[in-house]
Design goal:
single chain; alpha+beta; Arc Repressor Mutant, subunit A; SH3 type barrels; 4 domains; five-stranded antiparallel sheet; four-stranded antiparallel sheet; 12 strands; 39% helix
Length: 319
């Protein structure tokens, strides 16, 4: 990539941030003269990018808000990163029409078609070397995520049916945040009927409608929406505490998809805290450990775990 093209991409990246930059700041960041900055800004305008400038010694540059911007130019690393992200994450659901996985697969095909030949060959080479594990996760409609995001931004109430097992309830909420946690999408909202904060699995939402009623944002009863989701997930589960005979980094490698806290005890011992629905779920987690461990809590689950291990040892669990 030529120096001019690289500089133009760097300038465009700076101008796309929410802040505005003085000419002196752009000179310093790009390592060019003020005359070159003015020339590059004019070149961007000729390409159709709406760069606004305020006059005077302290004048600033920035992209005009609310204006359409031509398609972005990507450098080699950015283009390949986008292709890899789409290829890897498209395996996260069934890929049926309307799902996130299907949208990612379509996006991959479209981006692949418009890549320059040089980048297309590079992306295809890397794609052919990639294997992505397919996770069995609930299918989430991209239309629902888009509608919820729009309602959150515009502060419109949402109305929907919420399915939990065989029970379906009608909800009217003030949406606050969408959260992606442990391969699931969640909506954090103020439930108007229950007058309390609730978390909803997006894949369980049906008949979603955006109401015309607006609302004022309420302060969250936690530092982040993710904290609320975790507390909701953990509400019906128990905390399990395990001491593993391995350093924290090794434990993290053995349990890559667990929401847990790791407390190093020594160079080869780590205390793990996580939440489980029951002893069977804890047993599944323990089966991924390749080193010795000791369950500190809950002790009342130990008889079932010990009995199961005994049956496995004598083969009766396999009959």
């Amino acid at each position: 990539m030529s120096d001019v093209t690289r500089r133009m991409l760097d300038l465009l990246t700076l101008l796309q941030t929410t802040r505005r930059f003085t000419g002196a700041e752009l000179v310093d960041r790009l390592g060019v003269s003020e005359r070159t900055v003015r020339r590059d800004v004019e070149r961007l305008r000729n390409y159709g990018y709406p760069v606004a400038a305020s006059p005077g010694p302290g004048g600033t540059y920035g992209l005009t808000a609310g204006r359409s911007v031509p398609p972005l130019m990507f450098d080699d690393d950015e283009a390949v990163a986008i292709m890899l992200a789409l290829a890897a994450n498209s395996t996260a659901d069934s890929g049926r029409p309307g799902s996130l996985g299907e949208a990612m697969t379509r996006a991959y095909g479209k981006v692949d078609q418009v890549l320059p030949k040089r980048l297309a060959i590079s992306a295809a080479t890397i794609r052919s070397s990639l294997e992505a594990e397919t996770f069995v996760t609930p299918e989430t409609g991209i239309g629902d995520i888009t509608a919820i995001g729009s309602a959150i931004h515009d502060r419109y109430e949402l109305e929907f049916d919420y399915r939990r097992g065989t029970e379906i309830t009608h909800r009217r909420v003030e949406p606050h945040r969408q959260v992606h946690h442990l391969m699931r999408w969640y909506l954090v909202a103020w439930d108007l009927n229950r007058e309390d904060w609730r978390t909803f699995r997006t894949d369980r939402i049906e008949e979603l409608h955006i109401r015309t009623s607006t609302f004022e944002r309420r302060p969250l009863p936690a530092d982040t929406a993710l904290d609320l989701v975790k507390s909701g997930v953990n509400r019906t589960s128990r905390e399990a505490v395990i001491v593993v005979s391995a350093e924290a980094e090794e434990v993290a490698d053995m349990l890559p998809f667990e929401a847990m806290s790791l407390e190093p005890i020594s160079s080869q011992r780590t205390r793990v805290r996580l939440h489980c629905q029951n002893w069977r779920w804890l047993l599944l987690i323990l089966s991924h450990l390749t080193t010795d461990y000791e369950v500190e809590a809950p002790q009342e689950w130990m008889p079932e775990i010990t009995e199961f291990n005994r049956k496995v040892a004598d083969g009766s669990a396999m009959r």
